[in-house]
Amino acid sequence: MNLKIALLGGDGIGPEVLSQSIKCLHAVEETFNHHFTYTEGLIGAAAMDKFGTPLPKETIALCTEADAILFGAIGTLKYDENPSAKIRPEQGLLQLRTELKLFTNIRPVKVFPTLIDKSPLKKNIIFGTDFVIYRELTGGIYFGEKKLNPEGTVASDLCEYSEKEISRIAHLAFKAAKNRRKKLTLVDKANVMESSRLWRKVVTKIGESYPEVELDFLFVDNAAMQMMLDPSHFDVILTENMFGDILSDQGSAICGSKGLLPSASIGNEHAMFEPFHGSYPQAEGKNIANPVASILSTAMMLNHLGLDEEARAIVAAVKKALRKNIVTVDLNPDSKYGTEEVGDFIAKNI
Amino acid sequence: MNLKIALLGGDGIGPEVLSQSIKCLHAVEETFNHHFTYTEGLIGAAAMDKFGTPLPKETIALCTEADAILFGAIGTLKYDENPSAKIRPEQGLLQLRTELKLFTNIRPVKVFPTLIDKSPLKKNIIFGTDFVIYRELTGGIYFGEKKLNPEGTVASDLCEYSEKEISRIAHLAFKAAKNRRKKLTLVDKANVMESSRLWRKVVTKIGESYPEVELDFLFVDNAAMQMMLDPSHFDVILTENMFGDILSDQGSAICGSKGLLPSASIGNEHAMFEPFHGSYPQAEGKNIANPVASILSTAMMLNHLGLDEEARAIVAAVKKALRKNIVTVDLNPDSKYGTEEVGDFIAKNI
Ligand SMILES: CC(C)[C@H](C(=O)O)[C@@H](O)C(=O)O
Ligand SMILES: CC(C)[C@H](C(=O)O)[C@@H](O)C(=O)O
């Protein structure tokens, strides 16, 4: 199979972890006799430094032409200090989501049995946790109208949702639930927000076409609590952009290391895969960043492209590395393995 | 001292736990030679059933005249099923917050050493946790304009904040930090939201008048993660209404039982005290609800009214009950003590 893959390393540890993914893809090409071509683009702070914009049009073009996109991370300390700056690295990511219409963010939260001790939660609480968050990614308060009065004393953000925006992601979430434990939880704040009430109405209606899926509702405050008290009872969580941002980060903490979790951002025409974790600029260039999240994101990409066996080979190699304790220092403080060594081991075992 | 206290039991277990608070207040009156008068008002579902509105004007009047308000809880299963109904019990609470201008919600999250094992978090993670959330309570997306187009296909909520709304709560939060460990964390989403950027600007400026307080910033997604990974490093958290709702519920889960945590909602003229937990309708009338949160809210009320010694006496009695394991079933599944018995014990020990 011939595939075109766009590589957006981004900032901080993004490029380093992405390099490990590419090693794995080379191994996949060899083992399964595929041919992938790679094109690299700039985004985020790296693009700002070179082009003055966090999302150059060259980058958009190469993403549009690719069969799939692998993304590293965005943000540097320099820009983080000033979230009020007119141009910020994150805008590159937000714009890219819009440009490519990546309306669904999928974040699986699964505890690896070998790593259960890494969780901040007690074993009996975390045991068996395996859920996936479907977060709406191109609507809501992130993209609604923003206002600041001329005096700079009153500011506002609009959270708006349309039936269409809700229904396209809802269908994906119901389909996912159908193939899993058949439970879908819509997280909203329908006792307070008009947009949440629309979510509830639309999702309830769509639920009628998925009679095998049990649908329930949880207010977002309660959801944040349940994720702490009883995370294993969730199967598929469906929610809007901002709530999804908060809950998926909370969910990632469950697993003990942010360095383990992959994610996918998909639309009808394009798909992008990225590790859960951020750019972690403090670790940049130190060969200590955990490449597993990026490598598992690559497996999600292969799944998405229909290469299920190839994806399974990557996941198996990752599990082997975890089992043999060939991991970075976030998982084992005494580890002698760095980003490169863990990447090498996983690639070699594909 | 003569004081007028308004009692709003509300729904579910609200009235039962409030009764235990009143027992404690009677004990305080006797021991410290005070005279309190109590007036009762309806709110929430109870008020809807009787008056057709969740906040009758009689209730507003008696709250306005009182020196302080004790609140139980709001919401019943009947109304929870339909969050889209035109009139809902929660509106009573939201309106009351507005009417009385209770712009600051204060939620201390503190782990009782005797109950550390109840936490879903591991001991080493939770140990030493003692923070307080200052949540803005009368602004933001809860109260911004809500719209639904005539076709019912597009809905929106506006999140708006003014400098004035931010600054009045910020001053309270800085003062609290000054009297604690001198750390204030502003939680926002300034990389995405205009209103968050205003929060950051205003809070930074106010921070200059509190040089002894160290101010830092955390994006809300990161805050939800840190609360799981490292809750003990927080001191005072300041945040807007919706983020505060989510984080304080997440925070309450840290302690293992929602039945333990008190809260205060204060403005310049009025103050209301209520347990963290909701109305828990499943437990109504069963004498199993934990009265500690309501009783500790009463202690917060006494503190607020300048009766510090009296407040300390209540807290000491609560600690004694916990130490002697005179607790409800949420804390000890084999307990033979119910709501009333725990209330009696605490009142007797004041
Ligand atoms: C970088 C930031 C804008 C982004 C978001 O909030 O969507 C990130 O937190 C994420 O979750 O992907
Ligand atoms: C009942 C509800 C409207 C309320 C809120 O979200 O403010 C509650 O969750 C709270 O935290 O006090």
UniProtKB/TrEMBL annotation, chains A, B:
* The family this protein is said to belong to: Belongs to the isocitrate and isopropylmalate dehydrogenases family. LeuB type 1 subfamily.
Quaternary structure annotation from Swiss-Prot or TrEMBL: Homodimer.
Q: Which species does this protein come from?
A: Arenibacter nanhaiticus
Q: Which UniProt keywords apply?
A: Amino-acid biosynthesis, Branched-chain amino acid biosynthesis, Leucine biosynthesis, Magnesium, Manganese, Metal-binding, NAD, Oxidoreductase
The name this protein carries in UniProt is 3-isopropylmalate dehydrogenase
Q: Look up keyword Amino-acid biosynthesis and say if it applies.
A: yes
The record ties this protein, via InterPro entries, to: IsoPropMal-DH-like_dom (IPR024084), Isopropylmalate_DH (IPR004429)
What are the record's GO terms for cellular component? cytosol
